[in-house]
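Q: Could you predict the 3D structure of bis(5'-nucleosyl)-tetraphosphatase (symmetrical)?
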Amino acid sequence: MFEKLRCEVQKRVTPKRYTHILGVEEKAVELGKKYQADENKLRIAAILHDVAKSMQVDELEKICRENFSAELTEEDLKITEILHGFVGSIIARKEFGIDDTEILDAIKYHTIGKKGLSIVGRIIYIADGIEKNRDYPGVEYLREMTNKDLNQGIICEIDHKEEYLKSVGGKLHKNTLEMKNWLEQLKVGGTR
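A: Sure. Here are the predicted structure tokens for bis(5'-nucleosyl)-tetraphosphatase (symmetrical):
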């Protein structure tokens, strides 16, 4: 099944994007073993997380308007980097028959996160940013932190993202901020 998914996704994305997808799959499985998450779900979500990445922005926006008008604001629709996750969750469901909510949410929210995101979703979120092909200032630190504590690694990644966005005049998506606050509360409470 995984090989079939990989072949289908490979047809839809650039070679560089496909290499990234394989890196996310590898990192997600590695983290899944460490944090006791379902390997099959992680593999499916990782393989499909960027299935819509090579689609035209106007097509992504159109599909998001038709399917997520209650969830995505006009401001959200202008943040083109997040749309492929939402569309990817639709493709996963409609074209690949994936009906597992945990997998679909992992795909849908892999760029912005979400308060209450499952362990599978959180692993896909962070694996997307720290897989072995990613190379940016601070990535090694984020890998180390994630290896020590998944939620703390995500919090550090969000802090890093927030600094970067401020430097270019942007801001964190509300979902990302809500996820960070939720993870910080979990840390205090000590629950998974």
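Q: Anything worth pointing out?
A: The chain has a mean pLDDT of 95.
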